[in-house]
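TRPV5 protein: structure, please.
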Amino acid sequence: IGNTVLHILVLQPNKTFACHMYSLMLSYDRSKEGPGSLELIPNNEGLTPFKLAGVEGNTVMFQYLMQKRKQNLWSFGPLTTVLYDITEIDSWAEDQSFLELIVSTKKREARQILDLTPVKELVSLKWNMYGRPYFCFLALFYILYMVCFTMCCVYRPLKPRTGNRTSSRDNTVYVQKMLQESYVAYEDELRLVGELITVIGAVVILVLEIPDILRVGAAKYFGQTILGGPFHIIVITYACMILVTMVMRLTSTTGEVVPMSFALVLGWCNVMYFARGFQMLGPFTIMIQKMIFGDLMRFCWLMAVVILGFASAFYIIFQTENPENLGQFYNYPMSLFTTFELFLTIIDGPANYDVDLPFMYSVVYFAFAVIATLLMLNLLIAMMGDTHWRVAHEQDELWRAQVVATTVMLERKLPRCLWPRSGICGREFGLGDRWYLRIEDRVDPNKHKMMRYTEAFKAQDRDNCDKGSEKLETNGDTLCKKDLSALSLSRSTSRTSSHRGWEILRRNT
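Here you go.
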């Protein structure tokens, strides 16, 4: 019951009241340090009150809990060294990482916690010491891997075509070799080495990605932009295309160019994932993802309706014409492709002025130009401009979240010997098995202290007034006069140099 109350207090909108009640509940906890402590019991979603404060973006409660868990090591003048407990924050030994929970939540307020102490210092330490070097090495390794795969595709086994042409539009010169003919010469053996590297890389990608899908869930793993969800779809599809190409090569099945071309496009597009390691390029990958999977997806439905309608009209208009004089609409698939090019203004309106064109072609093309080029393309540009404006206002926050997500990903997938645990074990300071992060803090000259002293002086005045009034009501005339003189002295003293205030000053000094 107590643990449930703590979780409810974290969700309270009145944060000051929640902090006071939280302390009151913990004061009745008999096992404050053991495993049965109320603060360490998770709810049904596996979240402790500390993690719940981070997921909900409750920065006030998070800072309050961190202040309760910190230990002052030493202070000298304005410098103070503090040990912050990072046991639940650090993702090194956590199945459900606090950092991963923050970057995967949909609440923007939660990402503000990444800029608070000690989360900011912990992420900076991990990223600068291990994350950035490993990520740059991984990016270089992936680019070399893609160069190897591209060279294998460019020099794939082909042989001259021996059969006769069945159509005047047939332009095929080379065909795919059979498996027995593909690995004969020395150049074929070099290509075989590159192909084996490509296949092994695809298998490694699937082995690394599938456990995370099962652990997190497909919807959350692929749907979170900060976690690189679209890029995970791209790289898994790429690996599947590589395996399909391998099966088609081993079975001598024609048509391997289809999965091979898809794999080339997807593999090189995945290079954009490594832009998140750089502050200048990271926010642009977020913009591209939001535009593709937000604005462009909605726009494609409207574009498909327009293209289907006008492509059908163009095909019907030229159905009775000679395709040799105007071949852009000679069959229905070609009409769809030509209309798509017209929609994006890649080509001009096809016309042959040596022959008479149908009158309806001019009417339909005029309507198509007005709807597609003038209206819909400008609508798409306006939608993308709005998305760019929204992302630009939070690009620094998004880049920090990308760095955290990348750091957690590398920490989970790299061996422990390559990524030691950050922080200091509490046993070195007699604080148990918890892990701490040492941070040096410079105290700002005494703005907050002066406010606290002023409140203390005011409280002393109120206490003196209350005590003086009680004594006046209960005591006799002689005592009343003495108390009045003492009260007046106490009031004058409290306004300038109250004993309690000076005691606070001396104690802090």
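Notes: Residues 471-497 have pLDDT under 50 and may be disordered.
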